[in-house]
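During the second half of the funding period, the structural biology subgroup turned its attention to how the target accommodates small molecules. The most pressing case was flavin mononucleotide, which had performed well in the primary screen but for which no bound structure existed. We therefore specified the complex as follows and requested a full 3D prediction, including the ligand pose.
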Amino acid sequence: MTNITTTYLGLSLKSPLIISSSGLNSSIDRVKKYEQMGAGAVVLKSLFEEQIMHEIDNLTQYSDYTEATDYLKAYVTSNNVSSYVEMIKQVKASVTIPVIASINCVGASQWISFASQIQEAGADALEVNVFMLPTDTQRTPAEMEEIYFTIANKLSQVVTIPIAFKLGTHFTNPLRIIEQLWHRKAKGVVLFNRFFEPDIDINTMKITPAAIFSNPADLRNTLRWVGMANHLIPKIDISASTGVHDGEALIKAILAGASSVQVCSAIYKNGPAHIESMLNTLSSWMNSKGYKSINDFKGLMNYGQIENPSLYERSQFMKYYSNYE
Ligand SMILES: Cc1cc2nc3c(=O)[nH]c(=O)nc-3n(C[C@H](O)[C@H](O)[C@H](O)COP(=O)(O)O)c2cc1C
């Protein structure tokens, strides 16, 4: 009998499959269905820092961006801190699996004090989704990174629930960021977030949104950093995100060192039954290998465990170029 329970951020999960932060978790009925199908936890759609700032009547500082301000004003009418807190309470009352709240932020401003409301509403953990697209040529990477550390420092003074940072891929040294977040009491990291990307329509000559869903090949970059981080910063929990589309991908992420995976695009595409199918693949594989629990194989193929760790480090195709003349 295989046991697929796992621990993430100190929370006990009945399975390592978490439904990622997105509109997927905005309906109570859907969250109930995800629980029924075996999901270990859900991460609620992010509450955006701008929404919170509006609530405290501070949006004027964004007034340089008229369009953004107008959009936000309309948005916050129906989406503000109070309704977010209400949603946490409702989801908590409807399911027994852990409910992780999510805040999207671009700085360490007054919104941090609202994190305590999220905790009081009953969220089991807080996922912090930080992203600042650098458009200032004078700002150094160290200055940008400092914002993450300030957020972590301040949040740890406000909430006692576990905190995970959901990171993007664009750091010069992601491993240092993860280590520094661990020193600032982050219990986990989600590697990685996927952001809106622009495309250009050459017929209409307009900027259009690129595909919003990931594809299975995106998993490779996730695996590299999960594999390295699990060995080099072993105490921080890792949730693998981006490119986890099937049961095999889930198994690979755990072998690399993740204690859970987050799935979004694959659920949008295949519906809730896909959860059960992914978990069945996991159980059958564990049976075939004789693994009784997730800990039996978690991190078994991380950077420190494999015979040739340089396979995780290799970034140039040097050796392979010669085969493609
Ligand atoms: C429609 C949609 C909405 C999303 N909304 C959020 C969000 O509110 N907060 C967040 O942190 N990530 C959000 N994401 C990103 C997902 O949580 C996830 O990190 C990303 O899609 C990569 O995972 P995947 O490969 O399983 O899709 C969203 C993704 C999609 C497709």
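Two results from this model are relevant to the next phase. The domain at 6-321 is CATH 3.20.20.70 (TIM Barrel). Residues 141-158 form the longest helix (18 residues).
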